[in-house]
Amino acid sequence: MATTDYVLSERAVYEILHLENPLPEKFPPFCRDGFLFLQARHLLNQSCRPLHYFALVDSETGRADARFALFIRDDWAVSPCAASFGSVEFSEDLPDEELRRFVGEVITYSKKLPVQGLRIVNYPNCYLPTDSERLHAILLDTGFAVKYEELNQHLIVSIRSFTEQLHNAERRRLRKCQQAGFTTRVWTNPDVDELFGLVRKARLRKNLPLSMNSKELANLVSNFKSDCPVFTVWNGDLLIAACLGIRVTEDILYYFLPADHEDYQNFSPSVMLVESLYSYCQFERISLLDLGISTSQAVRNEGLIQFKKRLGAVESPKFVFEMRF
């Protein structure tokens, strides 16, 4: 059941809208297409409840110029529940005082919830550098602290070929895959059991946690088919590498759940896999290929960091903020 709570700002230009477990039609339109992870269809697909949605709505246009969602999980208010990030998304034209008032209202309401505090995972700074800096300053000013600074890495997609920016060692590995006759394709109707089996074995081998189970993966692939194409590398009929490419925005593709076959580690088919994503980005005019974080709660994975560097990756911080009540 949805509830609303309107709070007029002092300037009477914006209304702060709060919705609890809203129906899809109750979400106000946002000022731009924005991040997939903050759209109603993705928020409602995340499993935690209750969902509290906040929007800073222009009283003249009815459009939200800022939005934020939190869930309750393990006695914490968290943003997100099940996504790469949550946080506050806002119009670049929104004045700092309005953004600060919006964050303040979120804090005030969150303190009424039966939680220990509020934890916010922000998007990587490379997504929106100016907005990230503005939000960072306001969150610290309103009482948040940086819990972790993760290291994110991404590729800048241009007309340059993928191989031009590769380190010699990775170029040799790519050539080895090509000479072996491996092929790449977007798997339009993936066998989720086969895909999950590859992911599960790869993450166990690398001592990495599984961020979702097979049912959740099937849900993601089914409900977000156009936003989450499955990229693959094959040796004949054998699946040897795969990942999801999540279209976070029209201009950003996120490399998610990469996995490779244990018998093909000498080939490093992940290089060929990333090449296929890079080519897809060029075709779709996507300028940023996000390779994800290479740290876990700020602990560096040096092997992963160096691998991405050899692909030509650029580093960017990704902050996790926390406020204890």
What descriptive keywords fit this protein?
8 helices; 325 residues; 29% helix; Aminopeptidase
Describe the structure in your own words:
- This protein has two domains: 7-150, Gcn5-related N-acetyltransferase (GNAT) (Aminopeptidase, 3-Layer(aba) Sandwich), CATH 3.40.630; 158-286, 3-Layer(aba) Sandwich (Aminopeptidase), CATH 3.40.630.30.
- Helix content is 29%, strand content 33%.
- The protein has eight helices and 16 strands.
- The protein has helices spanning 40-43, 96-110, 129-141, 168-179, 192-205, 214-223, 269-284, 302-310, and strands at 4-8, 14-20, 51-58, 64-73, 76-79, 89-90, 117-121, 145-156, 183-187, 230-235, 238-249, 252-260, 288-293, 295-296, 299-300, 314-324.
- Strands 1, 2, 3, 4, 5, 6, 7, 8, 9, 10, 11, 12, 13 and 16 form a 14-stranded mixed sheet that branches.
- Strand 3 (51-58) and strand 4 form a beta hairpin.
- Helix 2 (96-110) packs across helix 3 (129-141).
- The protein starts with a strand and ends with a strand.
- It comes from Larkinella terrae.
- Residues 171-294 form the BioF2-like acetyltransferase domain.
- This is GNAT family N-acetyltransferase.
In short:
Pfam families: Acetyltransf_6. The chain has 325 residues and is an alpha+beta fold. The chain has helices at 40-43, 96-110, 129-141, 168-179, 192-205, 214-223, 269-284, 302-310, and strands spanning 4-8, 14-20, 51-58, 64-73, 76-79, 89-90, 117-121, 145-156, 183-187, 230-235, 238-249, 252-260, 288-293, 295-296, 299-300, 314-324.
